[in-house]
Every structure is written in structure tokens, then in C-alpha cells.
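FAQ

Q: What does a record look like?
A: Structure on top, sequence underneath. For example:
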């Protein structure tokens, strides 16, 4: 679906400015109730692989609040008739229970008309990502983000990772400069679409970002408590030097 500025995809949230898009959806700056600025992530198909990952992560994280994590404000599903779907209607269709099982979720989504449902996620709006900040520094003639500034961001990101890993046994699984936001000179971790609860049957990895993924993930062993730390270390290397620790063709 084509969205434009001033569209109101869910009640009370008006799109203001397009931020970017990817293979599975788009992100907008939006105005929430009272004009409060938020980021609105739109996934075109809740029944797609990406949509199921997002729903699974939202269920893991919707009750978690922490200073170093981008806050989740709300999420909504709309069916092909532009009607909002609530958790009760999804539960009655069996969609929520099935979402952790790819084949089962696809079958349930198709049977109940949610395969083409759109997923809208409202979250805190950052000033820029660490990747954007690195690009700014490079345009000023530096190799990367100055170490004193970067260490502050890394401490915040590491704090978020430790909180998820140790307090909630959740692995983010996609730590990278593009998923760490700067907000008023501090950092918050965002984009939890690949987040996994470990220590149970949900340990299987469904995706990764090459260049930052840990060796155990590349070997197909699944994430562990060092996975996010490895990705943060690779991110630090790139943000200081301007390039990843490995060649792209390696």
C-alpha cells in the first residue's frame, strides 16, 4: 500500500515524513496523540516471514521498559479490509499461538485472512543512528566517531544488551550500527525483529546481518549470551575505523 504524508494508518497517528524503507516495509516519522513525535514502522504483510518475526519479538518485549532500549509505544494489525485486529481476535484465530512456527503461522494466516494483514509499530523516535553519525564524522575528514563520544554510546548499548540477556534471557540477534539510535547524545538499542528467547525451543535463528553475526550463528548453532557482545564489538570496530573487521568477500 502506498502511504503519504498526513495519512492516518491507525487512529491517532498521522504520518509526517518518510524516513526509509527496506525489503519488508517502511519507516515514517509520525505524530501521535497530542502531536508527540514517534517512529512508525510499517510491515506490509503480517503473515510474511518478517511479519511473524516482528510479532514474535513484540510479544517478548512489549512489557519491557528500560532506559537504554527504544520504547515500544504500541502495535496494531489491520486486515485486508482495513479493519483493526486485536489480540482477542488473533487468539481466537490461533494466529498468536502459531506465530512462532513458520509453516503453522502461514497456514493459520491464510485460513483467517491475516496473511495480507499490515503490521504497524509505533516506537520512540531517535535523532539518528550510529551509522549515520559515523558518516557525518567521515564527511568531516575523520575515520570514524571520536573515541570519547563513541564510548558513551557503546556503554549504553552494552547496558541494553546486558539487561536483555541477563534479566530477561533475550538475545537481540541483530546488533549493528543501524540498530543503535542516538537520542539527546545518548544511545538506545532498537529493531528487535530477530530477538530470541533462549534456553527453550525458540532458540533457532531465522536471520542475521552478515558482517556483524557471531561465529556460532554462522555455524548454525543458534545464539548464546556472547552473540550480541560479538556483534557490538564488530560494530565498535567499524564505527572507529570506518570499515568492518572482515572483507566483504571473506
Amino acid at each position: 500500500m502506498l502511504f503519504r504524508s498526513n495519512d492516518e494508518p491507525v487512529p491517532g497517528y498521522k504520518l509526517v515524513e518518510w524516513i526509509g524503507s527496506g525489503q519488508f516495509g517502511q519507516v515514517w516519522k509520525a505524530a501521535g496523540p497530542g502531536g508527540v513525535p514517534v517512529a512508525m514502522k510499517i510491515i506490509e504483510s503480517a503473515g510474511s516471514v518478517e511479519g511473524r518475526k516482528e510479532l514474535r519479538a513484540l510479544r517478548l518485549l512489549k512489557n519491557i521498559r528500560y532506559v537504554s532500549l527504544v520504547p515500544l509505544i504500541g502495535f496494531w494489525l489491520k486486515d485486508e479490509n482495513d479493519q483493526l485486529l486485536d489480540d482477542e481476535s488473533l487468539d481466537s484465530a490461533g494466529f498468536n499461538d502459531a506465530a512462532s512456527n513458520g509453516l503453522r503461522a502461514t497456514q493459520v494466516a491464510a485460513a483467517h485472512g491475516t496473511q495480507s494483514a499490515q503490521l504497524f509499530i509505533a516506537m520512540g523516535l531517535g535523532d539518528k543512528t550510529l551509522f549515520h553519525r559515523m558518516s557525518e564524522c567521515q564527511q568531516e575528514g575523520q575515520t570514524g566517531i571520536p573515541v570519547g563520544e563513541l564510548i558513551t554510546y557503546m556503554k549504553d548499548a552494552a547496558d541494553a544488551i546486558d539487561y536483555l540477556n541477563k534479566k530477561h534471557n533475550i538475545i537481540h540477534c541483530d546488533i549493528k550500527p543501524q540498530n543503535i539510535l542516538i537520542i539527546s547524545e545518548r544511545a538506545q538499542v532498537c529493531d528487535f525483529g530477530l530477538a530470541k528467547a533462549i534456553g527453550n525451543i525458540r532458540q533457532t535463528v531465522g536471520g542475521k546481518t552478515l558482517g556483524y553475526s557471531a561465529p556460532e550463528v554462522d555455524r548454525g548453532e543458534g545464539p548464546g549470551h556472547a552473540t550480541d557482545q560479538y556483534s557490538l564489538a564488530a560494530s565498535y570496530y567499524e564505527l572507529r575505523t570506518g570499515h568492518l573487521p572482515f572483507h566483504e568477500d571473506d
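Q: Is there anything notable about this one?
A: Residues 147-168 form the longest helix (22 residues).
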